[in-house]
Specification:
heterodimer, A: mainly alpha, 2 domains, B: six-stranded mixed beta sheet, four-stranded antiparallel beta sheet, 8 helices
């Protein structure tokens, strides 16, 4: 103890060496680049490990079909074109459904939000129904959608729209309503028309919020498309249709592969809209930096 | 000279005596026994009388919350008086807000062009006027930058340029340099009074800095705490353009001291 103190006292004595001015090295938060790549790779490795463990240690060979090991999914499904090809074809159809649904939800949502922002009474009369749309379980209205729009492409799109609409409305409305009061004053002083105010102030100011909504809605729209595939099976199969087929035939390798493909598609769509948001508003708005 | 028609009566409520043509032509901005009550029951201004001649630079000093900003909102027509009359050339007002209030998605040039754009000025003309205004405030070469890339002082310069764009006969400035650091603030004061000397608009400048008020204005008006009234008025005789060293002139110090004393008297 005492030795420790003397040792410290020794070092504390200022010497000519210690007091000489030294060039100051900037204190910077080190950003270790490879760590950004290493950690997700590590977690992927861990996940594969768990997957193997469940396949080989937990399940008896007779029940191994419940969780086929990764290399089997790879060889049976991904590397076999006769298995992979229908999956990719189905995925492209699902992607079409999701994007058409997202586009409609985006147009409808922005329009509804602009309308609601024009008059308080419009907001009061429309917004509650937007909330109801959000809270009603989508599976509860799916049968009705089928009755009204048939059991094919149209209904799949309708499900997408229903599920992706609310975030577009609420985010756009929030963006328009958060416009700085002083900015409004600026437009008032110039006797700006309502149209000029909307086009040159409210919509550009709301753009970051619109993109936040778009990112949320894009993910939801992928889910909507897959749910739609499962219920509306007329016409070409979507990836959701295949999931149901593989489940019923116990083709568990294909089931896993289809799930992975569908997830990758969801991630891609999300990443795509993050990128679009960054390109559109990243130069002036910080929200676009966040993934 | 302004056309009589450009003088719009901002608030008619409580005005029973129509003003004569001479009276109106005399002043660029005139408050006649103006009251302002807010819906929540606070009284911002009572019986306020203030008149600004064409080309006159008037600074208003007063404690926080004495209704100084309300004065500008009434003069610009953003708010209406609850009593009395405000005469102002509302179509020829340049308003400089406390914050630069630039639109972050527009370049400096596009921001400065905005008032003319909203007024429907042809593109070539407004581009030229914007470039002139930017040159006047010393922002040449920064036209293509976004506001987020500029310093606080430069953003305020852009905001001044935007207000100059409209070639206003009346400038309303609401503590425009309040958020700037001391050095930038002094430099901006010098710039503003140089622009004033060059262009000769009438101005109502709100501040809580006594030296700023005395350095810029031809007349300094002291307001009392809420409800706001004008308690004293001082002429500042130094000619424009004023050199920066004027701040250390004994005569300057004396006036600043008097304004300060009046301000403190109003606080008690």
């Amino acid at each position: 103890m005492s030795a420790d103190i003397t040792a410290r006292a020794d070092t504390a004595v200022p010497t000519a060496e210690a007091t000489r001015a030294e060039p100051v090295r900037p204190v910077r938060r080190r950003r270790v680049r490879y760590a950004a790549l290493l950690t997700p790779l590590g977690s992927l490795g861990a996940a594969l490990g768990v997957w193997y463990a469940v396949s080989y240690l937990l399940l008896s060979p007779a029940r191994r079909f419940l969780v086929p090991p990764p290399q089997q999914v790879l060889t049976v499904s991904f590397l076999d074109w006769t298995h992979l090809q229908p999956m990719l074809q189905a995925l492209s159809l699902t992607a079409q459904v999701a994007l058409v649904g997202l586009f409609i939800a985006c147009a409808l949502g922005v329009t509804a939000a602009v309308l609601m922002s024009r008059a308080r009474w419009l907001e009061r009369s429309l917004y509650p129904y937007a909330v109801i749309l959000q809270t009603v379980p989508i599976l509860a209205i799916v049968p009705l959608v089928g009755l009204w729009f048939g059991f094919g492409f149209t209904s799949r799109v309708v499900v997408c729209v229903l599920i992706a609409l609310f975030p577009m409305i609420s985010n756009t409305l929030f963006g328009i309503q958060s416009v700085d009061r002083a900015h409004h004053d600026l437009f008032t002083l110039q006797r700006a028309s309502r149209w000029a105010r909307l086009r040159k102030l409210e919509l550009p100011a709301a753009l970051p919020s619109v993109f936040t909504g778009l990112r949320t809605s894009s993910g939801l729209s992928v889910i909507g498309a897959i749910v739609g595939d499962m219920f509306f099976k007329q016409g070409e199969p979507g990836i959701g249709t295949l999931l149901d087929v593989y489940r019923s035939r116990l083709q568990s390798e294909d089931l896993f592969a289809a799930i992975i493909l569908a997830s990758l598609f969801g991630v891609t769509v999300f990443a795509l809209f993050t990128l679009v948001a960054r390109l559109a508003v990243g130069s002036w708005h910080a929200s676009a930096d966040r993934p | 000279m302004f056309m009589l028609s450009t003088f719009l009566t901002v608030a008619l409520k409580g005005a029973d005596v129509p003003t004569t043509a001479e009276d109106t032509l005399d002043a660029t901005l005139r408050f006649e026994s103006v009251d302002k009550h807010f819906a929540n029951g606070t009284t911002a201004l009572t019986g306020l009388e203030l008149s600004i001649a064409p080309g006159e630079f008037v600074a208003v000093v007063g404690p926080s919350g004495c209704g100084k900003s309300t004065l500008l909102r009434l003069a610009s027509g953003l708010d209406a008086a609850t009593g009395g009359t405000v005469h102002a050339p509302v179509d020829s007002v340049g308003y400089v807000f406390q914050d630069p209030t630039l639109l972050p998605w527009r370049t400096v040039l596009a921001n400065v062009e905005l008032p003319a754009e909203l007024a429907g000025t042809p593109k070539a003309e407004r581009r030229e006027r914007a470039l002139d205004a930017l040159r006047l405030v010393g922002l040449e070469g920064f036209e293509k930058q976004l506001p987020g890339q500029l310093s606080g002082g430069m953003r305020m310069r852009a905001s001044l340029a935007r207000a100059l764009m409209t070639r206003p006969s009346l400038f309303l400035l609401d503590e425009p340099f309040g958020a700037l650091d001391e050095m930038t603030r002094l430099r901006m004061q010098e710039e503003l009074q140089r622009i004033y000397a060059d262009t000769g608009f009438a101005a109502l400048f709100i501040t809580h800095s006594v030296t700023e008020a005395v350095f810029l204005a031809r007349r300094v008006v002291v307001m009392s705490a809420r409800p706001g009234r004008i308690t004293a008025s001082f002429d500042v005789p130094f000619p424009h353009p004023r050199p920066a060293q004027l701040r250390y002139d004994p005569g300057f110090g004396r006036i600043a001291g008097e304004v300060s004393a009046a301000l403190r008297g109003g606080l008690q």
